[in-house]
Amino acid sequence: MSSRPKKQFTVSTNDPAHHFADPFQPQTPLGSRTPERTSSPLGARRPRVTPWLRWAVEPALDTPLAPLLEPLVPAIGPYLPNGHLPNPFGSVFLISHRVPTSDPDDPRYAKGWCDLLFLAYNIVFFSCFRQLITVNLCRRIAKYFGLKKEAKLDRFGEQGYAIVYFLLSGAWGFRIMAQLPTYWYRTEYFWIDYPHWDMKPELKCYYLMQMAYWCQQLIVLVLGLEKPRKDFNELVAHHIVTLWLVGWSYMMNLTLIGNAIYMSMDIPDMFLAFSKLLNYIQWEEAKVVSFVVFVCIWTYFRHYLNLVILWSVWTQFDLIPEHAQQWIPAEGSYLAPWMKYQVFVPIALLQALNLFWYYLILRIVVRAIVTSKTEDDRSDDEGDDEDEANKPTEKKRDTSKLKEKAMPPTPKSKT
To answer: Fewest C-beta atoms under 10 Å: which of 40, 205, 331, 339?
Structure first.
């Protein structure tokens, strides 16, 4: 066997920068500075990249994608942020019809046909948003609090979505009203300086999104996507009257009074939904307190303020300037004298529906005082109750059949 020469290592103790030499020379002592690499090792080069993927590494204009994109530049360029043409899809998710003569620091918007695109887009948006809140968020919260029945989970999701929406819309409506001369329900400004055809951008966006929400809610009711309550017909009538009010007020340039009505509806609806959630999770003391607060809020907003608006329509309608008290769509004037009744009637119908629900609310208050129970007369889970009520009868039928099978046949009498 040939013996390989052993490599001898020598330890250098004279090198102040290292403990060892030769193979161990790269090691550095504690506290010393690590030497910086001055150049890459020889042979370490970037791998070759195919010309069609070179844009991912070096996105330069001389890549093969440039010939493909070059014909599109003249077509797309004008629609880019720095271009001179508007975005063709801007009308779908942005408000349109800016008044060209309005101050750039205080822009104003008018109504127009492109508002229908914005409306349709937000109907779809609210459908997705509703699904996100009811299914992805509220169902998990409901299960956390021990709710298991499908009907209870659905109702919890519906009321949770109502809380989220009416909280946002109520706060947004309050913010907008604070910027208007109608704050807080100074009703004479509903009519002074009419027509109010040029809207603040926030007011127009708020108004159209409210319209989209109620359109989507009507679709949910008509298609039966929610389990119907006992007051199903009243709810359908409420949504139709609401859309009547919203559509006409927007077309007639009465958005200031529309904002006031929205406010009077959204805020109490939020407290109603919150009281229902507490009822579902059986927080008895909190439920009673929230219900008392809700009754006070409902009485003030849905009845007192609505009656204030009705009184304004009936007594302050003549504050409209004389030149605007005629039907001239080209000038934005629609409030001829006979329009007073057209404005008054739908608000009065809405108040009649509110009075019907107020009657149901007062029944709950009386029952709570007499029996200490605060239950909704509309029976949110009536379907579940029916199922539970049918179970004992089914069991009785089954047991009767078992008895019939178990009983021996009666012998025939011999004649």
So the answer is: 40
